[in-house]
# Entry
Amino acid sequence: MSHITDTIRALRSSLPESVMLVAVSKFHPVEAIAEAYAAGQRTFGESRPQELLSKVRALSEMAQASGDPALYSDIRWHFIGHLQTNKLKMVLPYAAMVESVDSLRLLQAISRWGEENGRTTDVLLEFHIASEETKQGFSREEILGIVSAEALPNVRIRGLMGMATFTDDETLIRSDFGRLTSLFDEIVRLRDGGRCPGIGSDFCLKSFGMTHDYGIAVGMGADIVRIGTLIFGERHQA
# Structure
């Protein structure tokens, strides 16, 4: 068996059944996705619109060539990178979820696209929890403002996503994750009190934890972990 197969199977056996594994396939070849798929993985994360689109097309061609056109049709793509509003048509027709909504402008654009195309998109609001200023995301106050406003059509806000500070300091990582879980719990309390019309009962997902800190994340209640390097190795491009 390959490293990819071994790692996928090990992760699937060790993660709680309630935790969704997103195999972050960005910067890796489509053949690596096919290996992970053969090992039972179905949810993959991409961060560049053009790369996602090219992989969707390549996998479709591979399926046709195999004689099984339905092969790979059950892949669930999660978009996990910064998404520009002029690239929506490359992503939204294929993405099961956009985890990285980091501005009200983007959220509104996704809603407009959905109205025009008869689609409702599941999204997560990206909460800026890391100490690095270069990382994207909303502030706590911005997120509370969004969920407290009227819901946008054709967008379903399913929860929060965040990336901890890239560090070996477990105390800092736990502090970052703790801010996300605390805000999530606050929003749920407000929703249950009728004070968050922007979300519904399906606001139930917390996505945090990557290769270097997913174990901490699972212990702190993550519902989704995004793991790339552990599965696929180092990136194939910058």
